[in-house]
Amino acid sequence: MTQNEKDRKIVNQALVVCKIAKANGVKDDNTIALVIELANRLLTERENAQIVYYDTDPELPANIEFWSEGRMQGYGINPTSDFKKGVWIPDVKEAQEAYE
């Protein structure tokens, strides 16, 4: 089981507890409930994150190009040579709105 799967199980259980608490009269602005909802949003972002590699030209620092592992393999580029590893977190909400 991956760390994301373990964390999702915990967050889902906490969300169920929050739902039950709210049904029993706990206010929506309860600090613990807000923290659990925040944890859910952050975990969702982490689940949607993608590993990318980027190459920066020292002479043109504004010229950054991001490459996925699949794209690099398609071009026969070794990701360990002159590339830095990073994480891309797409804006899921914005992407969903674009399809609606």
What structural category characterises the helix and strand content?
alpha+beta
- Average of per-residue pLDDT values: 81
Strand arrangement in the largest pleated sheet: 2-1-3
- Overall radius of gyration: 19 Å
Task: Furnish the topology, listing elements before pairings.
Layout: H1 3-23, H2 31-48, E1 50-57, E2 60-68, H3 69-74, E3 84-88, H4 92-99
Antiparallel strand pairs: 1-2, 1-3
Helix pairs in contact: 1-2
Describe the structure.
The protein has 100 residues and is an alpha+beta fold. It has two domains: 3-48; 50-99, no CATH class. The chain contains four helices and three strands, in the order H-H-E-E-H-E-H. It has helices at residues 3-23, 31-48, 69-74, 92-99; strands at residues 50-57, 60-68, 84-88. Strands 2-1-3 form a three-stranded antiparallel β-sheet. A hairpin with a 2-residue loop joins strand 1 (50-57) and strand 2 (60-68). Helix 1 runs antiparallel to helix 2 (31-48). The two termini are 34 Å apart.
